[in-house]
Each structure stands twice: as C-alpha cells, then as structure tokens.
Amino acid sequence: MADEKKRLVSIDALRGLDMVLLSGGAVILWHACRQSLGNEMPGWLAQQFRHAEWGCGFTCWDLVMPLFLFITGSAMPVAFARYREQGWLRTLWRVLRRVALLFVLGMVVQGNLCSGQPDQMSLFCNTLQAIAAGYLVSSVVLMFWGWRGQLASCLILMGVYWFLLRFVPYNGQPGGLFQPGNNLAYYIDCVLQGHWQDGTPYTWILTTLSFGAITLMGVLGGGVVFRMPGCRAVLLLAGSGVLSLGAALLLEYDTPLIKHLFTTTMVLWSGGWCLLLLALFHWLFDMLPGTGWLAWPLRVVGCNALLVYLLTNTPGLGGRSLWDSVAYPLLRWAENPLLYACLSYGMLWLVLLFLYRHRAWLRV
What we know:
By secondary structure, the chain is mostly helical. The chain has 15 helices and no strands.
C-alpha cells in the first residue's frame, strides 16, 4: 500500500497542473507573454490560450478538459479497489451519489441553477457533468471487467460514436455532417434537452460515449502506473500515447478533430497527449529520487481540484468568479494585470495550502 501511495504523486501532480492552468495559471502565462513581448503576442502563441475554432485543429487550451476527464479515470483503479472491499451495493451507491452531486454542481457552475429562473437554466452543459458521465460509464466497466474489458470498452465506445456521427441520418439530414448546429449529436441534445439546451454548438448527451472513452483511457493509464514496474510503465504509457496520436492523424482523413463534438479523432489526439504527460509525470515524480519538492506545489492544488474548480468557475459578484469576488476588493490597487493575477492566485494557493496541511479536501 505504501508503494501505491507513492505512485499517486504523479497523478496528484498532473491533476494539479491541469487545475492550475484552469484556475488562473493560464491567465498569468497570458499576461506574462504579452508584457514580455510588448503587448504584441504572435497569433500562433495567442491561439494556444483559446479553444480552436470549429474544425480548425487543436490548441494547448483544448487539452485542459480532456485531461481533467483522463485524470479522473487515472485515480479510479485504486479507489475502486477500496470500494470493492465494502461490497457491491455500497460501491454502486458511492458511484450514483457522486454522479448526482457532480451533475448538480455542474448546473450550479454553468447551468444557472441558482438563478431561480427555470427558463434560463441549462441541463447538461458543463465539464463537471462530462466528468460525471465519463465516471459513470467507467465505473460500470471497472465493476465488471479487468484491463482487457476496459480496453475493449474504450475502443467500442469510440467506434460506436464514430459510426453514429458518420453514418446515421437524422431529421431528414444525411449522416456524416460535422457542422455547427447541424450534426447528429447536436440534434439529439436539442430534442432531449429542449429549451434547457445551452445554446452553444457543444454537444453532451450522445457525446457521453466519448467522455466515457477518454475517462477509460485514464483508467487504463492509472492501472499501468499502479500495477507495473516503473520503467515498463513509462515505456508502455509513452508507446500507447504515440500510437493514439498516430491513430488520430489517420482518422482525421475521415473524421475531423472537433472539440465541440468531442469526435473520436479528438479523443485519440487528446488521449495520446494525456498518456504522454502521465508517462512524463510518472517518470519524473514516482521514479526519480529527490523530485518531491517539484510536485508538492502542484499537489497542493491537485488534492483539492473540485474546490479550486468551483471557486474559480462559479459566478460570483459583478460578473466575476466566486474567488475573484473575494480577491478583487483586496487587490484592486494592483492595476497591472500580471501583478493582480499573480497576487490573486498566490492568495488562493495559500488557502489551499492551509487546507492541504489540515487534510481538508472537498470530496463528493
């Protein structure tokens, strides 16, 4: 068990990196780049801080959401090993409770659940809800199958989603359309969610197949980290990542890489990078001696990932997030945007450090 706890360092650190970027680190990098380049950032660099336009490739910012899903899956093998000791029914109850809470929290963050106006609410529209969907699918697979079944399930989910988008006609339209607001996944969202659809070209209900696939890639990666000797694990993760990237490049000739639809090409491409990152972090933090101090600042954030996400993404006062609603009155004197971003995130990190030292972690 001690060895497993040590191996969790890489997963906590990778989760922490993802949350740092999502909760303010990317803003700091943006302002740092702008100021260092005289406020004239090259277009290719500026694009890395934004989502790619529909069908226009992949940016660094596009990796943040799939990495969140992937890391959720990576921690599941050890968690489910503990759950199984408590019995099948208790495990199922834990899963359903977590899915329900994540779904409700997703509505709070982005679905206007607290607005008190049902006509302004959105039902399925947020990353936390995508995680809930991917977690539910992966939990069912984990409860009944080993790694072979998990791999087969991942491939089947990707294949089914590819087939449905590529060949199934809908509402008088032919299959194989990948246009904003005109594709099978969007049509299903509009039919099933009605006026609760969020009005964006992002898709969610049918796309649960892809959410499950990327989460299962994390489950498989986490299983490798926890069960296989270090060097073999790194090589297998890295080789799988390269293979996944290669498959994405081949599939792109048939199916475009579109984050809004989370196409199978997107799953393979983003999953490949996630596997390579896990290989790097496993080698760096679980195998190399004396690297714990590098992982520690990230673990402080990663161990309270849900709390960080809620504080920095839930709407607060004046159109700001909950955290900025607290930080801005204290730091309004910091007129330089880079200074403000650094001080605000420094305050948040100190709060997280206090919680980390007291083992006060928000769990659902």
